[in-house]
Design goal:
The protein is of the alpha/beta class. It is built from 5 helices and 9 strands. It has helices at 18-31, 57-67, 91-109, 133-150, 177-182; strands spanning 7-12, 45-51, 77-79, 114-120, 153-158, 162-163, 170-171, 185-191, 198-201. The protein has a 7-stranded mixed beta sheet with strand order 3-2-4-5-1-8-9, sandwiched between helices. Helix 1 crosses helix 2 (57-67) and helix 3 (91-109) packs parallel to helix 4 (133-150). The longest helix is centred in the middle third of the chain and has 19 residues, at 91-109. The radius of gyration is 16 Å and the shape is globular. Mean pLDDT is 88; it is low at 162-166.
Protein backbone atom coordinates (compact mmCIF):
# COMPACT_ATOMS: atom_id res chain seq x y z
CA UNK A 1 0.00 0.00 0.00
CA UNK A 2 2.81 2.40 0.97
CA UNK A 3 6.45 1.34 0.82
CA UNK A 4 9.34 2.99 2.62
CA UNK A 5 10.70 5.93 0.54
CA UNK A 6 7.94 5.49 -2.07
CA UNK A 7 6.13 8.28 -3.93
CA UNK A 8 2.41 7.75 -4.56
CA UNK A 9 -0.02 9.91 -6.50
CA UNK A 10 -3.57 9.50 -5.14
CA UNK A 11 -6.32 11.27 -7.01
CA UNK A 12 -10.08 11.18 -7.21
CA UNK A 13 -13.20 13.15 -7.98
CA UNK A 14 -14.55 15.83 -5.61
CA UNK A 15 -16.72 14.40 -2.86
CA UNK A 16 -15.38 10.86 -3.15
CA UNK A 17 -14.02 11.02 0.40
CA UNK A 18 -10.31 11.75 -0.08
CA UNK A 19 -10.04 13.65 3.22
CA UNK A 20 -11.59 10.76 5.15
CA UNK A 21 -9.34 8.36 3.23
CA UNK A 22 -6.25 10.37 4.22
CA UNK A 23 -7.41 10.71 7.82
CA UNK A 24 -7.82 6.94 8.10
CA UNK A 25 -4.31 6.47 6.73
CA UNK A 26 -2.87 8.98 9.21
CA UNK A 27 -4.74 7.52 12.19
CA UNK A 28 -3.72 3.94 11.39
CA UNK A 29 -0.10 4.79 10.52
CA UNK A 30 0.35 6.85 13.69
CA UNK A 31 -0.62 3.82 15.79
CA UNK A 32 1.08 1.16 13.70
CA UNK A 33 -2.28 -0.47 12.96
CA UNK A 34 -3.21 -2.16 9.67
CA UNK A 35 -4.34 0.61 7.31
CA UNK A 36 -8.09 0.27 6.68
CA UNK A 37 -7.86 -2.79 8.94
CA UNK A 38 -6.24 -4.61 6.03
CA UNK A 39 -2.76 -3.38 4.96
CA UNK A 40 -0.16 -4.55 7.48
CA UNK A 41 1.88 -1.81 9.19
CA UNK A 42 4.96 -3.24 10.96
CA UNK A 43 5.39 -0.27 13.32
CA UNK A 44 4.06 3.27 13.86
CA UNK A 45 4.81 5.85 11.18
CA UNK A 46 5.15 9.61 11.70
CA UNK A 47 2.69 11.53 9.50
CA UNK A 48 3.43 15.09 8.35
CA UNK A 49 0.37 16.50 6.59
CA UNK A 50 0.48 19.73 4.55
CA UNK A 51 -2.96 21.04 3.52
CA UNK A 52 -2.70 23.51 0.65
CA UNK A 53 -6.41 24.32 0.85
CA UNK A 54 -8.90 24.97 3.70
CA UNK A 55 -6.26 24.95 6.44
CA UNK A 56 -5.98 22.36 9.17
CA UNK A 57 -9.64 22.17 10.13
CA UNK A 58 -10.82 19.65 7.53
CA UNK A 59 -8.29 16.91 8.26
CA UNK A 60 -8.48 17.72 12.00
CA UNK A 61 -12.26 17.27 11.95
CA UNK A 62 -11.89 13.92 10.20
CA UNK A 63 -9.30 12.76 12.74
CA UNK A 64 -11.47 13.86 15.66
CA UNK A 65 -14.38 11.89 14.22
CA UNK A 66 -12.21 8.81 13.92
CA UNK A 67 -11.10 9.32 17.52
CA UNK A 68 -14.56 8.27 18.65
CA UNK A 69 -13.59 4.73 17.58
CA UNK A 70 -9.78 4.68 17.97
CA UNK A 71 -7.71 7.66 19.08
CA UNK A 72 -4.70 8.49 16.84
CA UNK A 73 -1.27 8.81 18.38
CA UNK A 74 -1.06 12.61 18.20
CA UNK A 75 2.67 12.48 19.03
CA UNK A 76 3.15 10.93 15.58
CA UNK A 77 1.21 13.59 13.65
CA UNK A 78 1.98 17.13 12.49
CA UNK A 79 -0.58 19.12 10.49
CA UNK A 80 1.14 22.11 8.88
CA UNK A 81 -1.26 24.62 7.27
CA UNK A 82 1.39 27.37 6.87
CA UNK A 83 1.76 27.11 3.09
CA UNK A 84 -1.72 27.93 1.82
CA UNK A 85 -1.37 30.37 -1.07
CA UNK A 86 2.23 29.35 -1.80
CA UNK A 87 3.39 28.87 -5.37
CA UNK A 88 6.31 26.43 -5.37
CA UNK A 89 7.10 27.42 -8.96
CA UNK A 90 8.52 30.55 -7.32
CA UNK A 91 11.98 29.66 -6.03
CA UNK A 92 11.83 31.63 -2.78
CA UNK A 93 8.51 30.12 -1.75
CA UNK A 94 9.66 26.62 -2.68
CA UNK A 95 12.86 27.04 -0.67
CA UNK A 96 10.97 28.29 2.37
CA UNK A 97 8.58 25.35 2.25
CA UNK A 98 11.42 22.83 1.91
CA UNK A 99 13.49 24.38 4.69
CA UNK A 100 10.53 24.57 7.07
CA UNK A 101 9.50 20.96 6.50
CA UNK A 102 13.06 19.67 6.93
CA UNK A 103 13.50 21.72 10.11
CA UNK A 104 10.29 20.23 11.51
CA UNK A 105 11.36 16.71 10.56
CA UNK A 106 14.88 16.96 11.98
CA UNK A 107 13.92 16.03 15.58
CA UNK A 108 11.60 13.32 14.24
CA UNK A 109 14.49 11.69 12.36
CA UNK A 110 16.35 11.33 15.64
CA UNK A 111 13.52 9.10 16.87
CA UNK A 112 14.37 6.58 14.13
CA UNK A 113 10.74 6.33 13.05
CA UNK A 114 9.57 6.06 9.44
CA UNK A 115 8.00 9.25 8.05
CA UNK A 116 5.34 9.91 5.45
CA UNK A 117 4.71 13.43 4.11
CA UNK A 118 1.34 14.30 2.58
CA UNK A 119 0.92 17.13 0.02
CA UNK A 120 -2.82 17.79 -0.29
CA UNK A 121 -3.97 18.86 -2.84
CA UNK A 122 -1.04 19.35 -5.21
CA UNK A 123 -3.21 21.39 -7.58
CA UNK A 124 -2.98 24.24 -5.04
CA UNK A 125 0.81 24.09 -4.73
CA UNK A 126 1.25 26.16 -7.89
CA UNK A 127 -0.59 29.05 -9.53
CA UNK A 128 -0.53 27.35 -12.96
CA UNK A 129 -2.00 24.16 -14.37
CA UNK A 130 -0.23 21.03 -13.12
CA UNK A 131 -0.70 19.42 -16.55
CA UNK A 132 2.07 21.79 -17.69
CA UNK A 133 5.42 20.13 -17.15
CA UNK A 134 7.09 23.21 -15.63
CA UNK A 135 4.56 23.24 -12.78
CA UNK A 136 4.60 19.47 -12.33
CA UNK A 137 8.41 19.59 -12.13
CA UNK A 138 8.25 22.33 -9.49
CA UNK A 139 6.07 20.09 -7.32
CA UNK A 140 8.21 16.99 -7.83
CA UNK A 141 11.38 19.02 -7.14
CA UNK A 142 10.07 20.05 -3.70
CA UNK A 143 9.00 16.52 -2.89
CA UNK A 144 12.27 15.06 -4.18
CA UNK A 145 14.46 17.32 -2.03
CA UNK A 146 12.40 16.62 1.08
CA UNK A 147 12.49 12.90 0.43
CA UNK A 148 16.21 12.74 -0.33
CA UNK A 149 17.13 14.63 2.82
CA UNK A 150 14.71 12.92 5.19
CA UNK A 151 14.21 9.45 3.71
CA UNK A 152 10.43 9.86 3.97
CA UNK A 153 7.67 8.42 1.83
CA UNK A 154 5.62 10.95 -0.14
CA UNK A 155 1.87 11.07 -0.79
CA UNK A 156 0.76 13.47 -3.54
CA UNK A 157 -3.02 13.92 -3.28
CA UNK A 158 -5.29 15.75 -5.67
CA UNK A 159 -8.92 16.56 -6.45
CA UNK A 160 -9.65 15.40 -9.95
CA UNK A 161 -8.36 13.11 -12.61
CA UNK A 162 -7.47 13.78 -16.25
CA UNK A 163 -8.73 11.38 -18.85
CA UNK A 164 -6.38 10.66 -21.69
CA UNK A 165 -8.11 8.41 -24.21
CA UNK A 166 -11.47 7.82 -25.80
CA UNK A 167 -12.38 5.13 -23.27
CA UNK A 168 -11.88 7.67 -20.46
CA UNK A 169 -9.44 5.45 -18.58
CA UNK A 170 -8.37 7.13 -15.34
CA UNK A 171 -4.88 8.60 -15.40
CA UNK A 172 -3.68 9.41 -11.86
CA UNK A 173 -0.66 11.20 -13.34
CA UNK A 174 -2.69 13.80 -15.31
CA UNK A 175 -0.79 12.98 -18.49
CA UNK A 176 2.35 14.50 -16.97
CA UNK A 177 5.65 12.86 -17.84
CA UNK A 178 7.22 14.50 -14.78
CA UNK A 179 4.75 12.79 -12.45
CA UNK A 180 5.04 9.47 -14.28
CA UNK A 181 8.83 9.54 -14.06
CA UNK A 182 8.87 10.62 -10.42
CA UNK A 183 6.08 8.61 -8.79
CA UNK A 184 6.41 5.01 -7.70
CA UNK A 185 2.70 4.39 -8.26
CA UNK A 186 -0.60 6.08 -9.01
CA UNK A 187 -3.98 5.41 -7.42
CA UNK A 188 -7.37 6.68 -8.54
CA UNK A 189 -10.29 6.72 -6.10
CA UNK A 190 -13.79 6.39 -7.54
CA UNK A 191 -17.23 5.91 -6.07
CA UNK A 192 -18.75 2.46 -6.54
CA UNK A 193 -22.22 3.32 -7.80
CA UNK A 194 -23.47 -0.26 -7.58
CA UNK A 195 -22.25 -1.37 -4.16
CA UNK A 196 -21.52 1.96 -2.46
CA UNK A 197 -18.22 2.88 -0.91
CA UNK A 198 -15.03 3.74 -2.77
CA UNK A 199 -12.98 1.71 -5.24
CA UNK A 200 -9.19 2.09 -5.40
CA UNK A 201 -7.63 1.66 -8.85
CA UNK A 202 -3.86 1.41 -9.28
Amino acid sequence: FVYRKSITMRSGDPGVGKSTYSANMIRDFSLGLPVFNFFYTPKPVFCYYIPFERGAYEISDRLRSLSAVIEPNWHNIIIKPDFIGYDVYEAKQATHLIDTVLTDLDPILKREIDIIVFFDPIISMVAGEIKEEKYAKAITRCANIIQNRSGCAIELNNHTVKYYNSKEKADPFYGSQAFKAYCTSGVYLSRNKDLGGVDMHS
